[in-house]
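Board notes, transcribed. Complex of a protein with zinc ion.
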Amino acid sequence: MTFTIVFLIAFIASFGLRHWLSQRQIRYVAKHRDAVPAEFAEKVTLAEHQKAADYTIAKLRLGIIENGVSAIILIGFTLLGGLQILNMALLQLLGEGIPQQMALLVSIVLISGVLDIPFSWYKQFHLEERFGFNRMTKKLFFSDMFKGISVGSAIGVPLLWVILSLMEKAGDLWWLWAWAVLTVFSLLMQWVFPTFIAPLFNKFQALDEGPLKTQIEALLKRCDFASQGLFVMDGSKRSAHGNAFFAGMGKAKRIVFFDTLIEKLNPGEVEAVLAHELGHYKCNHIRKRLLVSFALSFAMFALLGWISTKVWFYTDLGVMPNLNGYNGGLALALFMLVSPVFSFFFTPLSSLASRKHEYEADGFAAEKSSAKDLVTALVKLYQDNASTLTPDPIYTAFYSSHPPAPLRIANLQRFSS
Ligand SMILES: [Zn+2]
């Protein structure tokens, strides 16, 4: 009973906090909809500012509905007995053992995935469409979905089988082995993803010879950065939003530009954006993030190792465990469903660390490239992505991985003056 109460309190608090933060952000953005902030008055028109406000609010409203639906799903699976019914039905069908536990986890992933389809569909073909950002065809939506399921199961099913086997056979320290397997796996994915998976979804072409390439090669030399090539990705087939990123680690690292980014920014601005991304690499942000994620997953596995042996963990969340032994899949399923309710409260910590990294990467870009170019690039990207220039401070402190535009630009202007 105790854990039911602890879970319910955390559940209500996290649901309420999510809702409250979204409502705050909606009110704040709406209140500032009628005037462009003074420091952007010359660069952003009122119409663009209002489009950003409307787009931000539309996304938040959809998020509020999603928050409600996922709350219902979570309670449906746990306290209302959905997982128990599913588990019993699969036990009758398949009997005890790893195949049954696998079927349980796969069913949960499928059920959640199916319930998510209307949201993704609405987001892409109504919300993004209404603001002129959607470039995806319905055919591509389904082909992405089909490829996603195929790749996900080709990788996920064997991995799950290994973890469930460890849970069953590796003794009390199974969680340590499972964590080690997952860590090695995610390091491997750093190479597998850009090399084999991303090309299934997008075309990558070498960046054309020309002034942009020359300028970028000079930047890479200045920063002493060895890449495995510069690529342009056809991001425009899905969305008008632009981006630049790195993929891979060690010797496999590639630099990838969305074609939409190169269309919108001039070569100096593209260079400044890339210098920012290089800053993340050179300031070791990428390595730090990876290490933190390994440490966190270690703690999560240790917790799962302990909690999965407690009968109350199952009964207090609405399922009956197998009292004579093996409950691997059931424990994983419950943990997957319930842990986000608790980890949500740590979001501000990771947002804070991320914003600190953004300032550092901006500093690096200002030093190796041009703060002025980065400012004009950011203004263009904020306009093109219709990001709000007037976010609520508390919402930002909680969620934002990037500092709000006015602060970020003010910080950069210190360098250029
Ligand atoms: Zn960044």
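The beta strands are 204-206, 230-233, 244-247, 254-258. DSSP finds 16 helices and four strands in the chain.
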